[in-house]
Amino acid sequence: MPSLRSCVPKAEAMRELTNHSLDLCSKIKTFQQESYELQDQITDLQKQRLDLKCLTHEDGRVEEGASVAEKYRNILQKGQSHLEKYQKMATITQNILRGIIIASEVNWRDDDPKLRDITMTL
């Protein structure tokens, strides 16, 4: 039977690892929220672009609308690149967190309900 002194450092290390994992999970959730917000912005821009396209065809002001449409297209591309960037970051962070949880051999199903909830969202 291991002595109490040998268990304390292990417990402290597990606690630190769990806290680090929780921090990573909160960062993932932040990135996901930013991703959702960017996606909403992209959707709004796409709607505006469609409305603008309809207006330019109806009024015959294709040249004037082309510069505005180009502006919206550039904004849309920028938003999509940001979205892809944050999705990749979130995926990488999720994979790292999964690896940490698996490598730490933490019993995430029974020990900590908060850790279980976070793990289940990965």
Structure description:
It comes from Salmo trutta (Brown trout). Keywords: Centromere, Chromosome, Kinetochore, Nucleus. GO terms for molecular function: kinetochore binding. Belongs to the CENP-H/MCM16 family. Its main location: nucleus. The longest helix has 56 residues, at 4-59. The protein has one domain. The protein has 3 helices and no strands. The mean pLDDT is 80. Helices cover 89% and strands 0% of the residues. With 122 residues, it is mainly α. The chain has helices at residues 4-59, 62-104, 113-121.
What percent strand? under 5%
Unreliable stretches, pLDDT < 50, 5 or more residues? Answer: none
User: Describe the biggest sheet?
Assistant: none
Q: What oligomeric state do these chains adopt?
A: single chain
Looking at this protein, list some descriptive labels.
122 residues, Centromere protein H C-terminal domain-containing protein, 3 helices, 0% strand
Question: In summary, what is this structure?
Answer:
One of its GO terms (molecular function) is kinetochore binding. The protein is an all-alpha fold.
Question: Topology, please?
Answer:
Blueprint: H1 4-59, H2 62-104, H3 113-121
GO cellular component, one term: nucleus
Keywords: Centromere, Chromosome, Kinetochore, Nucleus
InterPro entries: CENP-H, CENP-H_C
